[in-house]
Design goal:
single chain; mainly alpha; globular
Length: 179
């Protein structure tokens, strides 16, 4: 589940951000102004495309994980809570699609865009408990992880797939919704 969320967040961010920055540099961004769409519709189009890409990566990661699980245990891993799985995938894709759009409007170069991904999103993802539960960490690092908003994204997806989490699913769902 942690790898699913990491792939989803990175791809949703990169999809919207790179699409918009490429349009800025190619001069295609002006073409959006003449479309018979409102600004909100254009933003939602970019964001929903990010959700699709992120969800595809998440489900591909889940499929690979299912294959490894099947070869190890000769059974498929059942999804514990399908509704929560859909909830966290869609909202995380929207959040990171919007973050990608905001970053693309700010960035003047692809390097600035890459810096946001490499120096902000990636470290927060790794400190959010992607690979293991934070209960194995010393108390200081557990408390630090609980301040990280990506921890709640990751644990929400972990709960939806495995049925267990380091935090209440309602807390994670509420934070993700507010984001």
């Amino acid at each position: 589940p942690g790898l699913m969320m990491m792939g989803l967040m990175n791809n949703a961010f990169q999809n919207s951000a790179s699409s918009l920055v490429s349009s800025k540099f190619a001069g295609d961004i002006e073409d959006l102004a003449v479309l018979p769409l409102t600004r909100q519709q254009i933003v939602w189009a970019y964001s929903l495309a990010s959700v699709v890409r992120g969800a595809m990566v998440a489900f591909l990661t889940l499929s690979v994980g299912e294959a490894f699980y099947f070869f190890q245990y000769q059974e498929l891993l059942a999804i514990a809570h399908p509704f929560w799985l859909l909830y966290f995938i869609v909202l995380a894709g929207l959040v990171f699609g919007h973050i990608g759009l905001m970053s693309a409007f700010w960035a003047k170069t692809f390097d600035q865009l890459s810096a946001i991904s490499a120096f902000v999103i990636l470290p927060l993802t790794y400190l959010g408990g992607v690979f293991v539960s934070i209960e194995h960490l010393p108390l200081f690092w557990q408390m630090l992880s609980k301040v990280n908003p990506l921890f709640y994204f990751i644990n929400g997806l972990r709960y939806s797939v495995l049925g267990q989490s380091d935090v209440e699913v309602q807390s994670a769902a509420g934070l993700v919704f507010v984001a």
